[in-house]
Amino acid sequence: ETGVTQTPRHLVMGMTNKKSLKCEQHLGHNAMYWYKQSAKKPLELMFVYSLEERVENNSVPSRFSPECPNSSHLFLHLHTLQPEDSALYLCASSQGAENTGELFFGEGSRLTVL
Amino acid sequence: AQSVTQLDSQVPVFEEAPVELRCNYSSSVSVYLFWYVQYPNQGLQLLLKYLSGSTLVKGINGFEAEFNKSQTSFHLRKPSVHISDTAEYFCAVSDGQGAQKLVFGQGTRLTINP
């Protein structure tokens, strides 16, 4: 098993659909993150969970809803998205949210909103 | 607040030629500096990091970077590139307050021509 696994790798959804992205880490880390990567823009941090509690929410629209049921799993629930939400969504983990900044990333979920 | 500037959005080089990818940062406090690499259709992975000590840092795949505090730079270098180095490279800075404070640059796309 690779360190951080994301599913699905590709997702196409309509603006009225509800879907979820899943992330699982096998590294024994206790902090997990969602990033959004759009073309021509720096990585945008969306959410941070440390010890299963949300510690950061960077003004993300409510149509994105994270869930962290335990330290190994992280979900991003999606509903009534907009075409501008099409992007690569990256999950990452680290040993503690207060660490030096070293992150371990998954391969990403490529989302297309029609 | 910190910021990172990657001066080149694209760098084309020939195989076996040397390459330098430039990164400048601004921060009012001590920093940790990182280079991450993203190969096509993959997530980001850590290439190298500067936390303290020697200003010349060696990373994976023959890359190295030099921390220059007076010029607030952390340029990435490789003396001889290979086709497999084709990827996007991201410079990132942290103020030591945790991975959730990591700030990424906009990325430099390195293209290796045969």
Break the fold down into its secondary structure elements and pairings.
The complex is a heterodimer of chains A (114) and B (114).
Chain A: E1 4-7, E2 10-13, E3 18-25, E4 31-37, E5 44-50, E6 53-57, E7 64-70, E8 73-79, E9 87-94, E10 104-105, E11 109-113
Parallel strand pairs in A: 2-11
Antiparallel strand pairs in A: 1-3, 3-8, 4-5, 4-9, 5-6, 7-8, 9-10, 9-11
Chain B: E1 3-6, E2 10-14, E3 19-21, E4 23-26, E5 32-38, E6 44-50, E7 56-58, E8 64-68, E9 73-78, E10 87-94, E11 103-104, E12 108-113
Parallel strand pairs in B: 2-12
Antiparallel strand pairs in B: 1-4, 3-9, 5-6, 5-10, 7-8, 8-9, 10-11, 10-12
Account of the protein in words:
The complex is a heterodimer of chains A (114) and B (114). In chain A, strands 2, 4, 5, 6, 9, 10 and 11 form a seven-stranded mixed beta sheet that branches. In chain A, 36% of the residues are buried. Chain A is globular. Chain A is mainly β and 114 residues long. Chain A has no helices and eleven strands. Chain B is globular. Helix content of chain B is 0%, strand content 53%. Chain B has no helices and twelve strands. Chains A and B meet through β9 and β10 of A and β5, β6, β10 and β11 of B.
